[in-house]
Design brief:
The protein has 412 residues and is α+β, with helices and mostly antiparallel strands. It is 16% helix and 28% strand. β2 and β3 (41-44) form a beta hairpin.
Length: 412
């Protein structure tokens, strides 16, 4: 598929006509509103709608700082909008002259959180990651706990900690294990976790099947679940992560729709033990998405190279499991996949794994690293590779700021 918008037909472009990811943008002095990325531009959907070139409901939907209202309209509306956008943006479109007024260079806009995050749940679904972390925390014998192959393990996180790409993250203070008892101080083992975030678009009530869960997912974003490993190691038993994961979770600004990724589906790996019927995969629910993490400082150092299809549990299985309790899911729910680690060293999705708990520091352009240093910028990228095009996610970026001297000193 070719578009008349400059940049969209370049083979390395993240945002060709096949993609059409949804975001929220603003220009200086203007309110944030909904747009779609195409080539080097964002198409202003609020503007198109206001001037009568686009109509999806009786009242305006896109003159809003979030996509939640549109997501609530349901899957038929999602498919219809995508069709209309293709008609507007494809090469030879009869609407080109009018639509040209509504494209704005991406370099001229600020991007915001694309959804009002209603809840955030994070999972633990890469067998390689769970085995690596389990080995470091509990030894080889107890690496993978007895429930892991049967149940998608997760915890309820905090919506308030989810921030958009480009937001700086402050190194947290916390309670740490010390030689003479616990101490309170800045985390010395601050880390990233490479994940994919699934955005729930349709509400659920009561338990849903994996197929229903899959259909309720509106799209996906890149997600960096910043993690304080020293806080985590002290606090995680018996109830799991808490303050170690609550500093920030960064997501990429463009929601790549499930529909754009439909041609890249892959089945979950073969089950080692039979899973209960409610968790069986009805069709391929993973996605072939190449993922990478770089450290940008004094040059670019590759940290992680992996693929989302390495996961043992898919987002649809996680969502289905999430609803077994009767827990209602709402549009704007974000489900973190869990760290996406693969079988090789370069496929490890966190510094904890790359430096093996700090025991094996590795070289970067900015010097040796075991964990993230103040001033380091961590960048996640991802794309599904098509024949001559790619469905890209853009960037998920964050820079670590130094800890405060004393977090309890109040400004006068
Ligand atoms: Ca995580």
């Amino acid at each position: 598929m070719r578009s008349w918008v400059p940049g969209a037909n370049e083979p390395g472009c993240d945002f060709p006509l096949n993609n059409l990811p949804y975001g929220v943008f603003s220009r200086a002095g203007e309110a944030p509103r909904c747009g779609v990325a195409i080539g080097d531009y964002v198409l202003d959907l609020a503007g198109l709608e206001a001037d009568g070139h686009l109509k999806v409901a009786d009242a305006p939907v896109f003159d809003a700082p979030y996509w939640n209202e549109f997501m609530e309209m349901g899957a038929e509306a999602w498919a219809l909008l995508r069709k209309e956008l293709v008609a507007l943006l494809q090469e030879g479109s009869e609407h080109r002259a009018s639509a040209t007024e509504y494209i704005i260079l991406l370099s001229e806009v600020v991007l915001h959180l694309p959804v009002l995050v209603s809840e955030f749940t994070d999972f633990y679904a890469s067998r390689h990651h769970a085995t690596n972390v389990g080995t470091m925390f509990r030894g080889t014998e107890n690496a993978l706990q007895p429930n892991w192959l049967h149940i998608p393990i997760g915890y309820n996180g905090r919506a308030s900690s989810v921030v958009v790409s480009g937001t700086n993250v402050r190194r947290p203070w916390g309670q740490l294990r010390g030689e003479d008892g616990p101490q309170f101080g800045p985390s010395a083992r601050f880390d990233y976790e490479l994940e994919l975030g699934a955005i729930v678009g349709s509400p659920t009530e009561g338990p849903v099947t994996v197929a229903e869960a899959d259909a309720a997912i509106f799209g996906y974003v890149l997600l960096n679940d910043w993690s304080a490993r020293d806080i985590q190691a002290w606090e995680y038993q018996p109830l799991g992560p808490f303050q170690a994961k609550a500093t920030a979770t960064t997501i990429s600004p463009w929601i790549v729709t499930a529909e754009a990724l439909a041609g890249f589906r892959k089945s979950v790996p073969e089950r080692e033990v039979t899973v209960l019927p409610y968790l069986e995969e009805p069709h391929a629910t993973l996605i072939d998405i190449e993922l990478e993490v770089d450290l940008e400082r004094d040059g670019v150092t590759a940290l992680t190279r992996t693929n989302y299809a390495e996961m043992y549990w898919s987002s649809a299985q996680q969502l289905a499991h999430h609803t077994t309790s009767g827990c209602a899911m709402t549009p704007g729910d974000v489900l973190g996949s869990g760290t996406v680690s693969g079988p090789t060293r370069e496929a490890r999705g966190s510094m904890l794994e790359l430096s093996w708990g700090g025991k094996e520091p590795f070289e970067t352009h900015a010097g040796p690293r075991s964990f993230i240093e103040d001033g380091d910028t961590i960048v996640l990228r991802g794309h599904a590779q098509g024949d001559g095009f790619r469905i890209g996610f853009g960037e998920c970026r964050g820079t670590l700021l130094p800890a405060l001297d004393d977090p309890y000193v109040r400004p006068k």
